[in-house]
Write a structure and sequence with these properties.
This is Helix-turn-helix transcriptional regulator. GO terms for molecular function: DNA-binding transcription factor activity; sequence-specific DNA binding. Keywords: DNA-binding, Membrane, Transcription, Transcription regulation, Transmembrane, Transmembrane helix. This protein is α+β, with helices and mostly antiparallel strands. It folds into four domains: 130 residues, Beta-Lactamase; 78 residues, PAS domain (Beta-Lactamase, 2-Layer Sandwich), CATH 3.30.450; 162 residues, 2-Layer Sandwich (Alpha-Beta Plaits), CATH 3.30.70.270; 218 residues, Arc Repressor Mutant, subunit A (Orthogonal Bundle), CATH 1.10.10. Helices cover 58% and strands 12% of the residues. It is built from 28 helices and 15 strands. The chain has a five-stranded antiparallel sheet, with helices on both faces. Strands 7-6-10-9-8 form a five-stranded antiparallel sheet, sandwiched between helices. α2 runs antiparallel to α6 and α19 packs antiparallel against α20.
Amino acid sequence: MLSSIRTRKYLHKMVLTIMSFVAAFLVAISGTVFYYSDSIVRHTREEANHKVLAQASLNIGSMNEIVKTLAMSVYFDNELRSLFFDRIDIAQVLMRSGKLDKLVASSSFLHSIVIYNQAMDAYYGGGDVSFLSDRDPVIEAVRQTAQISPGKIAHMKLVPMYAELKPGDADTNGKVGFFSLFMYDSLDPYQGESMLVLNIKPEWIVSNIQAVNRLKGSSSFFLMDADNRSIIASSSRDVKPENAELDQLLRRIPYGQGVFASSVLRVDDKRYLATVMDLADNRWRLVTLDNYADMMKQVTMLRRTSIGIALLFLLTAVLLSPLVSRRLYRPVETVLSDIRKLGSADDGQTHPDEWSFIRDRYRGAIQEMNRVKQERRDILRTFYLTKWLTENLPLTEDEWAKLLADHRIPIDPKRPILLALLRIDRYPMLLRSKSPSELQVYPFAVGNIASEMLSSRYVCVPIKLREDQSALLIQPSGNGEEALPELADLLRATCDTVHRYYHITFTGAVGDPVVPGGSLPERYRTLSTQLDGRLMFEYGTVITPDKVLALSSDYDAAWIDELHGKLSIAMIEGRPDAVEQALNALFDELARYDYDGVIQHLMQLLTTVRLTVRRMDQHRIQALLLHYGSLFKAVLSAETLAEAKAALLAALTETAGAQAPRTGERRELIVEAMKEIIRESYLDPTLNLSGIAAMVRMSETYAGKLFRDAEGMSAADYLNEVRLDHAKRMLEETDDSVNKIMERCGFSNQSNFFRQFKRRFGTTPKELRLTSAVLPRS
């Protein structure tokens, strides 16, 4: 792993990340500029057009007011009133028309003034009109409008007049010759009464609009009426007012729909931004057209500038990214150096970069630290609980509560608890067949699985006591007695689960609920004794108090002795089937006894087997191959009665099968058995032929005859010889009194003892002792 880290993958990632971030940022900015530049420029131009058109509308409104003011001053001039309403001669008309000429001459925007006198049905004028002529175009245009189209006359509003201009008049780039403002007394539509007409030069309006339009550099503008007819058009227009596309656009935006509107117009593969504003006072429409290509020149320049800046920043990022990344990488390099100094070994894993390696090392260190902390807590808890249970340390209620609190044991110190011991079955065999690592796992597996299965119902704390045994502190919700059957079922289910996963079983022992604190160690000793006595139960059994009470301590000694005798005879006679029957009957009887009774009778059984085999060997040229020590160990180390019976059955049936009894040999074996009984039981003063015959399962008469025929003496005489031989040895080797030796050798009558002793040895016991004291012992 360290070799891969030396490639500095994370440093490379940092460089690439910074460069990628800068590139992405520049691309995003440039893309935003590219994407929104059109709309931004268009929106900006629309706002500029709005402001320009609003200013133009304001200027036209101001001109309207100027003309209105002038019209009112002329209309209400007392000197000129006669031209409107009186019948006057031509001299008076000429005199007053001179004043009109002066007014026109004094105003730069007036084209002419026309007055209609209804009384005389005559038109007079001043300025650029000739009212004395029959065909003056200005007066003719006013007359035609008043007579033919009086509905077009708007009171006190400028109206375009489509009269042909004389040579030298200003070029309006349209059909309008001048604008007229009509003033008359009535507020109703014009009905032919006297009126004042002020004719305004169109260039005055054109110059105002052009002056405002030049502020934004617009290419074309149109002043149109409500019927979309051109009134005034700019001189440098690219689109004619009669253009069909423009007409369709204006029709899509009817007059009066809105004060301001914009749209894109396409004419001859060119695009224009058309902006329309309604002038409500005059029922006119002001239209501007901006060439889209000219307008987007700014966008092109902006895009080129953004590309240049982006490339400059990208080049700067490429040059500076390694330096910045190297500086940012220094803390990572320091951490890696520290890890190398600590001697962190390669774990064999492939890490994508240095941070991944550091993260895994950090997580591993945290996990190891937590594991060590947990192990330390578990070790301390197990140590104190084990010491308390096994060493019978007395604890007060306060000390018990403190022990639980110090080691975070979730048990209520004031409520009763149950103690369960779990011991792994066949552990000696596991020691021989399993590895140390597997053996170390088993007690933890048993404790943890039991804790997990019981924790759904009870508070459960596992304790590892030794390699093959665990304990459980269990606290049910109630007083605990009603929980014993369910707890036993759960422990049996736990045993099944452990066997399914680990192929081992355990035997459990559960006691009655106890009060907290000091009584638990005593309960632990009781349960340990029950587990030691699991001989009476099968593997995987949960020993409960009711099962322990069902075992009997009332032993049938007579029946056991009879079964021992049957087993001895079956072995001596070499009958394996009889040996098996005797063992089955014997172990069926032992299954009812408690642990002490079973151990006691197993020891007696082993003694019987030993004596029987010894008797059998005395009459054989080759001794039987029965290793008594191994048999003793196998029986007493068996964990169940079934194992003990199997060990005995295998050894004894083989021994019985090795016997090849003939009739003579059988009699010799029986006699030898009787002699062995006498040699082993001569101390019993009540020993007689009747008792010996009962032990070998024969009648007294047959046993006495068999013994006399084989030995040439009665069994009683042989018993006396054995007793006298032992008495003689004790007189020679000990300082005990004669009476004491007599009693110890089974004699109850002193005179009989002296008589028998002298008959056998030719001297009395006292004389023998004196002789032994004087003569040296050979």
